[in-house]
Structures are given as C-alpha cells and as structure tokens.
Design goal:
36 strands, single chain, about 800 residues, 21 helices, globular, disordered C terminus, alpha+beta
Amino acid sequence: MMLTKDRRQSFPYSCKLMEQLNSFIRREHIDVQAPMLAAWISLLHRYTGLERIHVSMEADESHDTAFPLFIDFAEIPTFRDLTKTIHAGLRQQLDNAEHQAPLSGFTLRAESSLGSALMPLRGPHYEKLVVLEIVRSEAAWTGSVLYLEDHFEPDAISRMIGHLIRLYTGYLERPEVPIDRIPLLTEQEYTQMLVEWNGTEAEPGEQLCIPQWFEAQVKKTPDAVAIVDGRERVSYADLDRLANQVAHYLLQKGLRPETLVGVHLKRSIDMAAAILGILKAGGAYVPLDPAYASERHAYILNDTKAPIVVTQEAFAPSFAEHEIEVVCMDRDRDAVQKAGSHALQPAAPIRVDHLAYVIYTSGSTGNPKGVAVEHRNVHALMQWAKETYTCDEMAGVLFATSINFDLSVFEMFVTWGMGGKVILAENALQLPHLPAADEVTLINTVPSAISALTAMQAIPASVRIVNLAGEPLKRTLVEQIYEIATVKRVINLYGPSEDTTYSTYSVVRRGPDLPVYIGRPIPDTQAYVLDSHLQPVPVGVTGELYLGGAGLARGYLNQERLTKEKFIPNRFRNDSQERLYRTGDLVRYAADGNLEYLGRSDHQVKIRGFRVELGEIEAALTGHPDVQEAVVVAKPSDAADSRLAAYYTTKIDTENSRFRRALRMYLRKKLPEYMIPSFMIRLDRIPLLPNGKIDRRSLPEPQIVHESNPAPRNEIEAKLAAIWRDVLHVESVGIEDHFLDVGGQSILATQTLVRIRAEFQIHLTQREVLEAGTIAEQAQVIAEALKKGKNQTLPIGIMSQKRVARPLRG
C-alpha cells in the first residue's frame, strides 16, 4: 500500500554491509528478507519500547498479498533468534500464497504505526504510518522510508535511517548479543547528548551553606526588608538577630550538626526565624505543616527520631505522646531572646556536606519517605538562580508554598540570597488581598494556581516574572499569562525533591504554535534520556529521565535499600562516586536539545504540584475497618488540574453521603488535604484483568451522587449554585450537596471563596468550606450577614454554626 501525501527518503546498502548480510544468511540458512525485516522490527521496538510489534510485509508489489507478522520481544532475546522466527513465519506465509516471491529482484514493504514525528508514547495507540521499502536491482540494494509529510519531520526520518544502518551493522557483527544491548546512536549523537547537552559544569568556586548566603546579604543590605507578613515588615538585620537567638537557644538544648528538628509553625516571621536558626546552629529542619494530618506528623517524627520540635504553644499538646523536646516560639520567647543574638560561632562548624533539611514526599508503599538534602545541593540551586534572575525580578517573591513542598526552598533561600523580600501568603490565591500585593515581582507556583489567578484577573501589575513547576504546563495558559502586559518572562521549571527543587528550565516564549519544554539542565546538572537498559535513546524517542550532578540529594532517610534502587552509579561520568537519580518521568529530546515532558512510567501523579503516590492513598483507604479493597486514579478535569477518584468495596452493605463523609474524615487524619480524593465511588467489585491486575480502564467515570437535589429556593442560593457550577465544572448541584462530594478541593475552595466575596462582600474561610459546607447552610449565614450590612466579613463555620461578624479586610 502507498501512503497518500507521502515523502520518500532513500539510502543505499553499502557493499560492506551486503557482504556481512550475505555471510550471515549463509551461516544461518535463512532467506535475505529475514534479517532485513528483523532489523526494521527491532528499530520499531527500540523506538517505542513496546514488547509486541505488529508489521505487515508485501513480498512483491505485482500483487496485493500482505503477510502479517506479530513479534513478541519478551520471548526473543537475540537478533539470531529474531531472524529465525521471522524466517519461519515468512516461509509459512509464502508456502500458503499462490506463488513465492523470487529472491532475485523483489520489493519488501514493511509497515508499522508510529506516533507523531517518530516520538511515540508507550501504549497501543499508533495512528501514523511509516513504510520501509527495500528493492534489489542488478547493481545494488536500495532502501526507502516512506512517511506522511504532515506528521514527520525530514530530519527525524534521516535519523531513523541512520539508526537502522547502525543496527544492521551491530546485529550482524554480534547476532548473539541481546537485541536491546546493541548501541543505537551514532558516535556523533552520543557526543551531542552526553557531552554537548550535558556540558553544564559551573565555574569552580567556594560552596556556601544556606546561612552564609543569608549572612552575606545581611552585611550588604542590613536595613532592607527581608520578610513581609501582612503589614509587618522585618529587615535583614532583625531577621538575622531573631534567627541567631533561636540558634543559640537550640545549641543550649544540645543541638549538634545534622540534628533533625521538626518545624511545626503557622506561616509567619517566627517560622522563618526558626528555620534559619536551625540551619545556623548546624541542624536540619523537618517541615511539619500544621495543616497536614496529625498521623502523618507522628509517622515523620518517629521516622526521623527528631529530638526537638519548634512549634507554638497552641500546638504543644499534640506532641505530648512523643518523647521530644518542645520549643514554643511564643511561650519560650523570653528564654530564646536571653540566649543571645550575637553572630554564631558554633562548636562544630557547618559544612556543605551537612544536611539542610529532610522533606517528606508521598511513598508508594503506604508511608511517606524523607528526602535528605545537603547544603551543597541547595548551593547549586542558588548559583543557578543568581545567573538566571535579576535582583529586580527577585525584589519581592510571593512565599505561598507549604514548607512541606520544595518550591518553598526557592521562595525562601533564593530570595534571601539575592537580597529580595519574602512576602508571606497562606496560598497563592490570597495574593490579591495582601497589603503588599503590589510589591510582588515574582510568583513561583504551580500552573493550576496561576490559572486561577489569571482567571480572576488577580495578578498585580508589579509582577514581572512567573515561575511555573510541579505540573505539565499548557501553551494556552502561557498565552493567557502573556496577555498581562507587565509580565516579561514565563519560566517552566522541572525537578524532583531528590534533585533539590529545580533540575531543568526553559524560558517559554510567546507564540500559540510554539512547543512548551521543560528545557535544559541547570548548571552542574546532567539529564539523560535512557531506555530500560540504561542506554541513551535518540532524539525524538521516549525514554526515562535520569538526573545527576550537584543538586542530587544524599538519598532517602533511613531507607538504604530504596536509596540504592533509585540512586544508581553514573556510568557516563569518569568519577566513580557520581550518581544518577531515576525519576520515573518519561521525556524526549527535541532536535535542539530541549526536553519535553510526556508523563509517568508508573502510577505516581501530580496534584496541584504535589507528588502523589496512589498506593499511599489506597493503603490509607484499606486501613478503614469497613473498606475491603481500594484503587485510586487521577482523572483529567476541565479545571486546570487533575482530580483524584477513589474506588472501593466495603465489608458492609452501605452507600450514602454519611459514609463517604466519614471516610473522608478518616483520611484527613492520615493524609494531607491534596491527597484526599475528590470523588469517592463504591463498587460491588474492583474490575480485574485476566492476569489478576486491576483493570483501571474499566473503572467507571466519576459521577456526582445527589442524595437529594432540591432546587435553589431564593436568590442567594441561586447565586451560590451558579458559582459552584462554574468553579467545580459540574452541570448541576443541589443545595444539600456537600462541597467535597461534588469534586471540591483546596484551590477550588479558594476560588469559590473569592467569588462569594465578590458577589456578596462576605468572606468564608477555606478550611471551613473544606471541612463542611452546603449551599443551603452558606446561604443561611450569608443572609444573616447581609442584614447587618455588606461591609462585614463572616467566618462561616458550617459544622460549628458560628455567627461572628468582623470588618472586611482590604
């Protein structure tokens, strides 16, 4: 069959290659078509990563006979085995045909479906065709690759031909070697990928610990504002004094280098001083966001064996069951101040190879795992930032990320290292209501949050640059951001916690048709795109991303086996001590060396930028006494981010809103808010594949269950219903539906609250809407508030039914 609107690239088979080929077929007693077709099928296997390849072959273009071939590479280890399998298959097909194609002068046409631009994702759906045609004439053999010009770049086809010839040579020279072990790339490609695109070595210089970065800025600009909390401002000199007091106090408590210290504080100036003080004293901080589940905190404290936690008096009782020294920034303030505010001279100096922090990420085994990051890892991040951002861009950085999420490392330490001010916010969507909103020059957040801010037209004119990370970035969002005239740069960043916040970056230019890349490695970072045998894959071919370099964390705390599994020796560098981190992320190289993110190779997902191992949620669900089995998936949404859907079976026959809410309350004690599923679906049984694995494709689409769905009874309820439908992207909502039961979560709750504030001049707190909230209950409280006057703010506590009025801020 011919391709419509096709292009053709032809190539000769050299005399040397044909000599090798003829020698091989004589030794193996096979037809010449077998090794020719085997090399082509092997190439498709190497490009796609698929174990099963389907091709068809036309032995003679004088008739329409096409022979299908199905090759399972899991059962064929070597090229010799593959050629014998193909030879046997072709002989059988030709014997059954009306006549056999003559061996002198034939056309072999093999075709297989590939993804766009020779860049397939791993999966069964390939719809674009490429065709290999081989013709023998009296003088020579010629090959041609036919392709659809609308779907394939000529350069991609040229590379493909080069790889085919490379495989021919390698397989014929070593037919007994496993198929996947023969090098695919040319020497030029190896040099380009391993040397040129990874030649990121920074200029040698002194490495600094985090406190040294901060203290250098204190000396330079002592009176400049370092941190803003509402209307309170603290200078670099004053924050340094506060941090020194904390450091001296902790040293008196016995803190030594690498002592792990829990930080359980609300977002505040005290929190910043505590973190800096721990680092100044040589300790490593362990984030314990108060908004996270108490059971998660208990697990982390038990795992770290942290001897000290810094908190507030109101939270102190929650640590009563732990054998831990509790330091309260408010209760112990006098003692902390008396400890001394002079510059620190610790007994054991801090070294760059000492731990700076241990941050816990979701774990596939059911428990979070602690990533241990050293000062020198953060130094690499800060060095890159100094080269990438101007001081004007870093003048005012929004600090809205939880300290449990490593974007906070950039927002705090990079800002202070460049002399800017950290502007505190509970979350990114609080930005327009901050007193210092018009001083924010850089927003560092996830795409779902910036999408909400853009939709609300809430990005201040002071913002010059937007950092986006944690989620795939869509071109449409980039264009929306650039509609804001004052925004000059949008930077797409990528990096796991195991490589200290950011590993690659790309300044995304404006243009609706331009691709969005995660870019190239930052200085002193290497990025390799490898196949399952740790061999580099060609440009445009999907592989797994491995990272190396100065940002690589020490490993996982107290998990030596997992550390060895994920942090492997870097065989591409001369230093035997260098390692690579296996990210599990699928990427591909563009022709210019930029990396494009394609998804995951496992069941890990990102929800609002946070890493989520679905197995951890499933383990939490099955821990409920009435839940028998559970599976959790991430469902794409019309909103900016995906939503989690939990499917479960129960040991008792129950299905109602009360059970779902009880299950959510149970999960809230174990998991952070972003890991609570938006949809909870009870099934009679979990669908399984024939091999016993869960059939995720057969799970039903989440449906909003209306226990009762009375229509709005008044204007307030009607307006609230319209807001909910718009924000939650649902067609209908009942006034008795609970916010969480119709797909609500934190960012959507914040958007809802902003809309309510604008519509009624009434303010609800996010926590209250997440914990409880129906349209009927909200409407009742709003109605009461409106009677007292619109310029009031009411915290609507649906569960507690409090009715307390206070002035509207801002």
